[in-house]
Design goal:
two-stranded antiparallel ribbon; 295 residues; 12 helices
């Protein structure tokens, strides 16, 4: 294999002179290869740049979790960003106790889908990243008839496993979209979970003010000890703002799917400690992110 294929197969990070000096932008088509004849790396970008303009490359389809952990910055509106629930399964058992009963949880575990639901991820526009998570959610909120049909399939697989094709062996009522009430219940549950997560993550007015100050002082950021000390906190706030963007997109989608579009996102804040996030804060985050990244 080529040197590049070797490093890719090992999942290894390497230092690449000059290439490492380029900043990241997800929207830049990027191709990095190794020329074994000339013994050098070759970087091709799918867009043009004018003289004096900063040249960007894409580090790959990465969430802000990856970008912050491995590169130390947050990208505004990252196309591959995801919001991951800490433990959606426990939340559903506690908050939807009237629907998510022991029979449904037992069926979920029998399918081995509990971890998919527990760590359910939402992408841009509320897209559920893992189809198995969606399958598991359908199991948890299914009607009694749907659950009985699923258990009948499971029983037939147990009784005649050697006569089944792989597709039949992995068959499930819940792999495809079900009747409207069940799909509605899935999105209502996700809507409730997103609204609660949004309240937990939202910025206070004091935190929003920090972001506005960062925007005002962007030309000085990273230039002194005081600004350097603020950088980790500002990155944390930016990270939260980006996760709030994802939650807002998901909430908008789930409200449309459940017919709850006219509901307010959150009650209007009434005190200085009330949590909210505004368009100005998001704009401040974008400016601060750029300043921190280039510092």
């Amino acid at each position: 294999p080529s040197i590049l294929e070797f490093f890719k197969s090992k999942g290894t990070y390497i230092l690449a002179p000059m290439i490492d000096s380029l900043n990241h932008r997800s929207t830049i088509p990027t191709d990095l290869d190794y020329d074994s004849i000339r013994q050098r790396f070759r970087l091709s970008l799918g867009v043009g740049f004018r003289a004096g303009e900063q040249v960007f490359m894409s580090y790959g389809s990465k969430s802000n979790d990856d970008l912050l952990l491995h590169y130390g910055f947050v990208e505004v509106d990252a196309p591959s960003d995801v919001f991951e629930f800490g433990d959606l399964l426990t939340w559903l058992v506690e908050k939807r106790a009237g629907v998510v009963n022991d029979d449904r949880v037992q069926t979920l575990f029998s399918k081995g889908l509990q971890e998919n639901v527990r760590g359910c991820k939402l992408g841009r526009k509320g897209r559920i990243v893992d189809e198995k998570a969606l399958e598991g959610l359908r199991i948890l909120v299914a009607s009694d008839d749907e659950l009985r049909a699923e258990n009948a399939i499971t029983e037939s697989i147990i009784q005649t496993p050697m006569f089944l094709t792989m597709d039949e062996f992995q068959d499930s009522v819940f792999k495809k979209e079900l009747q409207s009430p069940t799909e509605l219940a899935v999105y209502e549950a996700l809507l409730g979970a997103c609204l609660e997560q949004r309240q937990l993550l939202s910025l206070t007015r004091e935190e929003e003010e920090e972001m506005r100050v960062a925007k005002a002082n962007r030309t000085q950021m990273g230039g002194g000890k005081e600004n350097a000390e603020k950088a980790p906190r500002l990155l944390t706030l930016m990270f939260r703002v980006e996760k709030l963007r994802l939650l807002d997109e998901a909430i908008a989608r789930f409200r449309k799917l459940t017919g709850n579009e006219k509901q307010l996102l959150l009650p209007s804040p009434t005190s200085s400690n009330s949590k909210s996030v505004s368009g100005d804060t998001a704009a401040s985050a974008a400016v601060a992110a750029t300043a921190l990244k280039e510092a």
